[in-house]
Amino acid sequence: MTKFIDPQGMKDAVYNFADDINQASKIGKKIRLNKKYNNIHNIIVIGMGGSAIGGDINKMLLKNDLSIPLIVSRNYFIPKWANKHSLVVVSSYSGGTEETLSAFKDALSKECQIYGITTGGTLSKKLSSNNLDFILTPSGLQPRAALAYSFVPMLYLFLHLGLIKIDLNNNLMNSIKLLKSVRDDYSLNDQKNPTWVLSNKIFETIPIIYGETDNTSIIALRWSNQLSENSKMLAFYNEIPEFNHNEIVGWENNPKLIEKLSIIWLTDESDHERISIRQKISNRILETIVKNQFEISLHGTTRFERLLHLIHFGDWVSLWCAYLHGTDPSPVEKILRLKEELIDQ
What we know:
- The protein is of the alpha/beta class and 345 residues long.
- It is 46% helix and 14% strand.
- The chain has two domains: 31-166, Glucose-6-phosphate isomerase like protein, domain 1 (Rossmann fold), CATH 3.40.50.10490; 188-324, Glucose-6-phosphate isomerase like protein, domain 1 (Rossmann fold), CATH 3.40.50.
- The strands form two sheets. It has a five-stranded parallel β-sheet, with helices on both faces. It has a four-stranded parallel β-sheet with strand order 7-6-8-9.
- β1 (42-46), α3 (49-61) and β2 (70-73) form a beta-alpha-beta unit.
- α3 crosses α6 (147-160) and α9 (216-229) runs parallel beside α12.
- The N and C termini lie far apart (45 Å).
């Protein structure tokens, strides 16, 4: 019998995703803008890890709604083209992320329009001292487990600024209802639970996750990150159609290594019809080479609901993989060691 090690309660954090979205929605509705924001030509979300992924998710969710570009910048600086017409959303759960604080300073120097999302720390102090708007979110979670507080307030910011015109509240409330309807099933180590079943098939492999560019590929990134941090497993992702122009050829040599790999295809009915065809052909091409191939496509009335469902599904898979390894999903010791050693450099 596998011993489930989870003293810090990562399972509760995964289970509570729907509740966090609801709470984050209440926070987002309270956004008050004291600064003037106008003539915004582009959006730059700066952050790292669990704080940055919220920007990616919003880029995915708003693919058909935003009329200006949105990019996520994971670096010590922002693009050179950024200027007074750029809205920079500074996202740092801890408020102390080294790269994000550096990029924030760069955004100040470029006279960008800046808004912050954080739990406090150095970032909130710097935002306050520069008389900039920001919103505080609840602390006490691992950044990757605080996903709702990363992407939901940002959505409300865009709504307040008139950058999107969608029924955000309805989209979120319907998504919450769907997530609550599946989480009890996903929380059981039972053969009727598809997240448990998939985890048992992949936990002793290196998962390679594929999705459509700017759509399910962003969820593939989330899955690979969660498998790395929660499960302490190497996992990688790529996107279709680019995958079909290079990486697909790499599935040939080193057959002994390929035996230890799994392919997970993330699909959605919103995928471009040619992407769906490419995925099916790619699956057939590789079926004699890769023993483990899995296609994950989930239910939901709207694209918004289905994509958030797919994120939640992947979080459960990463949790179960951790448990199957007898690993505590919460600690990220190598990240902490790296941060400690950077202090002395």
